Amino acid sequence: MKKIITLILAITMLLAMGASLTSCFGGGEIYVQTNAYFAPFEYYNGTDIVGVDIEIMEKVGQKMGKDVVWTDGDFGIIIDTVAEGKTADCGAAGLTITPERSEKVDFSDPYYTSIQYVILPAGSDVETKTADGTTYIVWEALAGKTVATQTDTTGWIYADAEIDGEGGVLYGTNTKHEAMDSANVAAEALGTTIDAIIVDELPAQYIVSNSTKGFVCYPLYYSGAEGEADEPVIEHYAIAVTKGNTELLNAINEVLAELLVEDANGQTEIEKMVMAHMGMN
Amino acid sequence: MNFFNSIGVLITNEKYMGMLFEGLGTTLLISVFAALLGLVLGTLVAIVGISGDSPIMKLPKLICKLYVTIIRGTPMALQLFIMAYTIFAIRGFPKEITAIIAFGINSGAYVSENIRAGILSVDIGQTEAGRALGLNGKTTMVKIVIPQAIKNVIPAIGNELIALIKETSIVSMIGMYDLTQAAKVIGAGNNMASYVVPMSVAACFYLAIVYLLTFAIKKIEGKLRAGDKR
Questions:
Q1: In chain B, what residues touch A47 (CB-CB under 8 Å)?
Q2: Which residues of B touch A69 (CB under 8 A)?
């Protein structure tokens, strides 16, 4: 009898310890999952993660009176962790809204519109087109090339559909698609084993302006049908929130609405942040 | 020449070196504690593994066998992933502890096999002699077999420690700021925009740690083998 009582007491104590452990780890904080290799939206400055998404979430934290805790990890894990909601309340990593992702998480209002870009090495023979003063590249121009993207990013999703997917623009044209750890790793091999990198507009410009190897970048377009203009590959960034967490979702949307108001010069607060982080204000 | 210039730029840059040392701290922290955990776990598992075939030991033996089989048979990266995103998926749980536990458990499986091999490598005649002199089983093990086994085990354990230190480089996968992560960050577009240079410098750091460790192990081995005529 004594033993049984001791056992019960021991189990209760363990459970209580577990409960207090959980409560001391999770309190008045917002946990945000990110992938800090996406300048200017999130990147390491020394050992701190900074960027546009960080500034946005700090404002959300101020609004809700909570501290914001950042967790860095693989890009591919963000949607899963946010969907589960165990270690993160939301994900801010320049996430593009896609139907598949929307099934798992709630997206905030879009706060940035990006175009897919192609980075090319100096002296590349990839053909460019010009219309209305914009120089761009159509998918067809990449035929037969080795194209790199960061695994699971929208660049990867597009390339996977157009190069490896049946019915894609470049399917069966002997074009190769390589998935890399990040666009930066791909940039290391650009010009030697890789002919082009598909990545979002701003990171592309960041890589081109910081590299000493004379890279160039152009927007990526879909060829229009006969008589129609070519269309850029557009996407919208938003913050992913665990399904059902309307309090946080509303707070994020309120902050984004404030940041998206245009000032007298027609510039929004978010555009200014982007410029500041790109070092061109 | 550009490569060496860039290395010069990196090692004279206070911010970049600060980042590398910060990363080095994490790498050492994980390595040291994981190694300690691995040694303790490994020794326990090895002792269970070589213990006699009494019925009470059946279950612990089975558990230890399963542990070694599973841990040695699956990739470290996957184990770390499961630790970080399933088992220790607790808000604010320090990632250092997650990593130490993941690497400690992994290292323990290898260490246990090394220790088991070391103990078995001591000639059975030593045990027989001990028992013939009237020592009991436990004393024979502690006073006669284990001291000889340690000597045989040291090189293999050293090998495992070296492998462990280098393997911690995968913690950047779960977003930890270790030496490899620091090198990646320095190589990112907003810093040097070149991976090869910071990675090479980080490699030198790893080499230095491993070299120091090898040196220490050689010293210990030399001391233990002082009485041997070989």
A1: 19, 22, 177, 182
A2: 92
CATH number of the domain enclosing A222: 3.40.190.10
Q: Do B184 and A71 touch (CB under 8 A)?
A: no
Shortest alpha-carbon distance between residue B67 and chain A (Å) = 25
CB contact under 8 A, B92 and A26: yes
In A104-163, the residues whose Cβ lies within 8 Å of chain B are none
Q: For residue A184, what are the domain limits?
A: 114-234
Q: Is B8 inside a domain boundary?
A: no
Angle between helices A269-278 and A52-64 (to 10 degrees): 130
Q: Residue B95 phi/psi, 5° resolution?
A: -65, -25
Residues A201 and A63 in one domain: no
Q: Of the candidates B91, B173, B189, which has its C-beta nearest A26's C-beta?
A: B91
| Same domain for A274 and A230 | no
Domain for residue B11, yes or no? Answer: no
B109: helix, coil or strand? helix
Query: What SS3 class is residue A243?
Result: coil
Domain range enclosing B182: 18-224
Q: Is the pLDDT of residue B17 over 80?
A: yes
Same domain, residue pair A109 and A120: no
Cα–Cα distances in Å, from A232 out to A114, A253, B86, B159? 10, 27, 40, 54
Residue A268, token pair as written in the block: 């929004």
Which CATH number goes with the domain that contains B129? 1.10.3720.10
Nearest chain A CA: its distance from B163 CA (Å): 23
Inspect the interface and report whether the beta carbons of A87 and B190 lie closer than 8 Å: no
Q: Which of A38, A77, A84 is nearest to B91 (CA)?
A: A84
Interchain contact A74–B (C-beta under 8 A): yes
- The amino acid occupying position A251 is A
pLDDT in tens, chain A (281 residues): 566 666 666 665 655 555 555 544 446 889 999 998 887 899 888 889 999 999 999 999 999 999 999 999 888 889 999 999 988 999 999 899 988 899 999 999 999 998 999 999 988 888 888 888 889 999 999 999 999 998 878 888 889 889 988 888 898 888 999 888 888 888 888 888 899 999 988 888 888 888 888 899 999 998 887 778 888 888 899 999 999 999 999 999 999 999 999 888 888 999 899 888 877 54
The domain tally of chain B equals 1
* Same-domain pairing of A119 and A199: yes
- Same-domain status, A85 and A147: no
**A15 in any annotated domain:** no
Under a CB-based contact definition with an 8 Å cutoff, are residues B144 and B135 in contact? yes
What digits encode the pLDDT tens for the residues B134-167?
Answer: 999 889 988 999 888 988 899 999 999 999 999 9
Q: Do A77 and B85 touch (CB under 8 A)?
A: yes
